[in-house]
Amino acid sequence: MGRRKKIVQECERLMDTPENIRNIAIAAHVDHGKTTLSDNLLAGAGMISEGTAGEQLAMDTKEDEQERGITIDAANVSMTHEYEDTNHLINLIDTPGHVDFGGDVTRAMRAVDGALVVVDAVEGAMPQTETVLRQALREGVKPTLFINKVDRLISELQEGEEEMQERLLGVIADVNELIRGMIEEMDDIDDDWTVSVEDGTVGFGSALYKWGVSMPSMQRTGISFEDIIEMERNDKRDELHERSPLSDVVLDMVCEHFPNPVDAQPHRVPRIWRGDSESELAEDMRLVNEDGEVVFMVTDISMDPHAGEIATGRVFSGTLEKGQDLFVSGTAGKNRIQSVGLFMGSEREEVDRVPAGNIASVTGLRDAIAGSTVSSAEMTPFESIEHISEPVITKSVEAQTMDDLPKLIETLQQVAKEDPTIQIEINEDTGEHLISGQGELHLEVITQRIEKEQGIPVNTGEPIVVFREQPQEDSREVEGVSPNRHNKFYISIHPMDQEIVDAIKLGDVSMDMPELERREALQDAGMDKDTSQNVETIHGTNILIDDTKGIQHLNETMELVVEGLQEALDDGPLAAEPVQGTLLRLHDARLHEDTIHRGPAQVIPAVREAVHHALIDGEIRLLEPIQNVRIDVPSEHMGAASGEIQGRRGRVDDMYQEGGLMVVEGVAPVEEMIGFSSDIRSATEGRASWNTENAGFRVMADNLQREQIMEIRERKGMKLELPESVDYI
């Protein structure tokens, strides 16, 4: 029997004892060594050979990941590990570190109970470290820490024992500060989730040279920091690996310190599901009941050339089996499961069944998308997975030959299904398709995959930056009149507090919530009581308040009012860009008695006109997306690095020394950052490393507004004259 088959059989045997299961994700800043670490764990579990671990990058299963040397898609693997005489099943997800693929990290966190955060000993906690920690904690996932590349402190920086320990303690303190700051806002986490060497929730080592240590392992093997320094310096790394293999240290830490599904689900389910907590279904999920109703949360959709579409996710209750007919949230009818399996890196192994508490991959769920709730009984779906950042950059994609157009449309729809952080607009008339994503690399990878994997030659346009529109002042009450002059709507708008906008973005406030809960959440974010009671709808980060009293026929017309409002907000009055952060009040309405005279053709234009005029009266402005920029560079190139930020309409906020390098931190508009990578390389002779992170939107400078608006209007084929009342730009 093959080694892999044996591992699959052992995994199947362990699936039924949730106390011995650990569902974990490895998360880190880009290039801190997650995938190399995953290789070590796979080798330790006997799944790949010891010799190639660290070079094979087994979890980077796609060709472009191997070429670029970065993880692009989250990859799953199930393995076993013996700890304290008990065999454990570990379902691991290796997640991307690059900011453009942050959506994969958010989705992976929904499926797991523990996050192993990897930090580079030399670079320390970086911006993306903070982001992945926040993503884990928001989902109620417990962190532990592995400090990687400790060998660099010894061989490159020539640090002694004291210096080295000081630096490592500094990294731990930084990570704990981040954890403390985030946990403070969470009422349902009573335990102390900070990490410490004494508790054994921190490991150190070198994924490249396959050795690792933690306090428990040092006590067991008798290896001290002094020994480590001596063995590293005398090139005895193989001996160090033999005496303290990295995989044992990390997998022991996983088994000891991460919660099993039985411990984790009682506190995780209330965080991610707002259904009836007294119901039998809620009880099944809390108890990880494999005989209960099936509840499966899809966190990832991928394509397999042979098996078709594969949905991967967490089984919270019941048991998944081939042939089951299951409901998929948000769609009619049922989907039948064709096969059930486990991922072993790039290979998927079919099994007969997967019970609650495990991560499973199934085929046959044709209606599911990443974020769907799949169940045997109709139920309240899980909270939607809220992605922290939104698309900021767009590219047009066209098939080179018309024959490929149907296949391209199908592929783009599949792309949107697999990655919800990508937005796709298809213009059936022009054959032009717009893809919006998190950054240049994100879109580059998507378009390359369309060409290589689907064999569709495409032409791509220049990157276009996504803008937003937002009012700056309160407007007066504005009238909107229908084309037949028989219906009138009176609307005013007000810029909304940032706290309320953030609450909507993070999913703390939504129309799916029970009304009472939504009111409380809005009041907590700073909305006054009366306003919070009259919320009619939430669209994007905008809220409509119905302040009308006893108007005849308004109830049956409200659906059209909302439709008109959505149209007006999706295409703002300045450049048809989406409007954000606006509170709209409907004060009054005059409606025609006869239904025929207050249909869609009358109500929608009237509401649209009222909203646009109110926005203009509220001095609406164009907002541009910005990025936080961090550049690490030798001191002689510091001037050139800060000049690169300032020359892009950016500002430098801080400069400080860290180790042998200078760090320059600042912000700059996304539009100006296009092409930044080649410019910074030439400006610093290739000596700089940098990181960017999307930081939301800010109002564009007044002197640039008109020019930018005209440019967008021209690109979209709109009239170049702005409405007369826009006399403030």
Uncertain segments are: 51-73, 97-102
User: What is the terminal separation in angstroms?
Assistant: 75 Å
> What fraction of the residues are assigned to beta strands by DSSP?
25-35%
Structural class: alpha+beta
Helix content: 25-40%
- Net shape: globular
Number of strands: 32
Give Rg in angstroms: 27 Å
The largest pleated sheet is described as: 8 strands, antiparallel
How do the strands of the widest beta sheet line up side by side? 12-11-17-8-9-16-13-14
Put simply, the count of helices is 24
What is the averaged pLDDT score?
81
Walk me through this protein's architecture.
With 729 residues, this protein is α+β, with helices and mostly antiparallel strands. The protein is 35% helix and 28% strand. The chain contains 24 helices and 32 strands. It has an eight-stranded antiparallel sheet with strand order 12-11-17-8-9-16-13-14. α2 packs across α11 and α19 crosses α20. It is globular and about 85 Å long.
Gist of the model:
The chain is α+β, with helices and mostly antiparallel strands and 729 residues long. The strands form six sheets. The protein has an eight-stranded antiparallel sheet with strand order 12-11-17-8-9-16-13-14. A seven-stranded mixed sheet has the order 2-3-1-4-5-6-7, sandwiched between helices. Strands 18, 19, 20, 21 and 22 form a five-stranded antiparallel sheet that branches.
Q: Would you spell out the secondary-structure blueprint of this structure?
A:
Layout: H1 3-14, E1 21-28, H2 34-44, H3 63-68, E2 75-83, E3 86-94, H4 102-111, E4 114-120, H5 127-138, E5 142-148, H6 150-155, H7 161-183, E6 202-206, E7 211-214, H8 215-221, H9 225-233, H10 237-243, H11 246-257, H12 261-272, H13 280-286, E8 295-304, E9 308-317, E10 319-321, E11 325-328, E12 334-336, E13 339-344, E14 347-351, E15 353-355, E16 359-363, E17 373-375, E18 393-399, H14 405-418, E19 423-427, E20 432-437, H15 440-454, E21 458-460, E22 464-465, E23 468-471, E24 478-481, E25 488-495, H16 498-505, H17 515-524, H18 529-533, E26 535-539, E27 542-546, H19 554-570, E28 582-590, H20 600-617, E29 620-633, H21 638-646, E30 651-658, E31 661-669, H22 670-673, H23 676-683, E32 689-699, H24 702-715
Parallel strand pairs: 1-3, 1-4, 4-5, 5-6, 27-28
Antiparallel strand pairs: 2-3, 6-7, 8-9, 8-17, 9-16, 10-15, 11-12, 11-17, 13-14, 13-16, 18-20, 18-21, 18-22, 19-20, 23-29, 24-25, 25-28, 26-27, 29-31, 29-32, 30-31
Helix pairs in contact: 2-11, 5-7, 19-20
